Amino acid sequence: MAYTNSGTGLMIEPGGTVYPGLTLTAGTIWWLLNSLNIPLSVETVCVFTAPIFSAFASWATYLLTKEVKGTGAGLTAAALLAMVPSYISRSVAGSYDNEAVAIFALIFTFYLYIKTLNTGSLFYATLNSIAYFYMVCSWGGYTFIINLIPMHVLLCIVTGRFSSRLYIAYAPLVVLGTLLAALVPVVGFNAVMTSEHFASFLVFIILHVVAFAYYIKGILTPKMFKVAVTLVVSVGLAVCCAVIAVLIALVASSPTKGWSGRSLSLLDPNCNKGWCSLKHLETEVIQTSWTYASKYIPIIASVSEHQPPTWPSYFMDINVLAFLVPAGIIACFSPLSDASSFVVLYIATSVYFSGVMVRLMLVFAPAACITSGIALSQAFDVFTRSIKFQLPGISSNTEVDAAETSSATAKAQNDAVKTEKSEETSKNRPSKKSKKKEKEEKPSTKAKSEKKRLLALPLDSSVISLLLLILLGAFYVDLSMLSSAGSRTCMAALAAEAYSAPSIVLTSRSHDGLHVFDDFREAYAWLRHNTDVDDKVASWWDYGYQTTAMANRTVIVDNNTWNNTHIATVGTAMSSPEKAAWEIFHSLDVKYVLVVFGGLVGYPSDDINKFLWMVRIGGGVFPHIKEPDYLRDGQYRIDSQATPTMLNCLMYKLSYYRFVETDGKGYDRVRQTEIGKKYFKLTHFEEVFTTHHWMVRIYKLKPPKNRIRGKSKKSKSKTSSTSNRAKRSGTGKKNPWH
User: Looking at the 3D structure of the chain, how many domains does it have?
Assistant: First the structure.
């Protein structure tokens, strides 16, 4: 069954492209509130869904970090997540996107995994599978979970940390979690048929082989155990070979080797060493690497969130946490436990993926907050312990306090030891040696406190360092009260400016104050009031949702980029000469064409800077569109050195039509050059509206000329001879393409 998208008029299969978690969550909240006689509209619930789940995400971060390094580290990490700029971008009111609920689901799933790993409770393992199911419903980033956890399980097995708790934490997640994931329509059988999930199944087999080896080791004699191991290894190798052969057959049958396009762009970030540059974006040359996506699936690479980040974006998105993360990683190794090794693996993988795709900064932000919280908590512990040991009057109580102070990791490890002991007792395993070893390794409380005394810092250094940490925390939280009037220097204010401002209303600051650019709403209002309800509007897919919602008009393509062929058709029209583009748009029943142009005011995210993706996406479906035809010395140019194909394409003409009238030169402030073709006329399109700052320009397709049928050969020859005489005399029509 399918339904028609009111925005594009295309038939869409329900659940084929949309993850239902966000919609179900908002709908459930609305239903609960109305059941409690709290009448709120659906719109209000959607606006506040992200802030509500940001509080849940901070709570989940506290629980996860508490399981790793104690309550102090958990509180610090939760406070950091509440203020980190990267997460603010998805937790502000009105940010109704999948990540609004998915980040909470991600952190909570990791917490339940660590909780199960520390306790060995099947109850928490079941909850972990349910949390994973919610994550699958919410966001496609669930594949990060189903690959990170198997990596950690394999790491524990290789380093000799296998236990029954590890088995309980992982096996139910693979079985129950995969079955639940297959129930999500957008995932379906991909949960067992795609390469993103094969790692979890392979580790699942390895885990059972290791568990079986440990089991037979406890019930057999050493001699019989060697024979059994030989048999198990032989059978295991045969089974593994068969499984690998099946996987190879499945992978080989797929053109992408069983991987999705986004996964391949993450795993193969630089398959080609070439570079393609777009000349002069603002004051610098912006370069885009040829990733797998940009080479084979340009529709993925064309999304700005899928581009690699720059170094300054790390300091913008995670701020001072960039300096605390290394200290937190070091703190995770003292001592190294199953939980802390998971955090190290989490931060390492998230750093890599965030370096490939800027959107995955959202995955990196919680890991940075966790490790930074651990680092700050350890620093506070060192300074406060040093002060406590050296202040008069409390030194007598130091030993008692030191004995009572313990982290959640130590408690979890003690519980784990007790669980292992009970299991060993039930299996009649010898435990006297282990008890004796524990007594030998366990130092006395007095020795511990004496060791801490030796490691204590000087009193004055500890006090100054503690005050500096508190002062730096104040700088991190808010310094608006100390800043000069009108300036914004604190992290919270900068994040609010960058992520909370509406993207449809643009602002800029200069020496004469704040300037507001409201061209988008101006253009959408014109469409809503001056066009028919049934008129179709063609534009690049970035503006599809906005046009549908604010202008209430049908668009050809929108931000739901599931139909690559339809987007390629629009890209081909924008890349074609005027007449060919008119024919394409006329075949799509388009009445108006909307383009975004920033050359007058210096707005860099205009359609000329996105034009390379129109060429690549269009050329991927229609081979007659060739990117080299638009390049001069490997660059997209719009000046006098531009290629004829570039100067005659529809995008160039619609963007720069009458542009020379603004200053007499046709100087583009974004590309910082004068345009190459300044004077030309449109023959198949007519300008109907241009906004105040020329940021949005709307053109109407001219109606087709009447065709006279049944012309005689005599009249045709007469017409052709007349046109030939006109050409010879120089009075004929000038070719519009030159």
Answer: 2
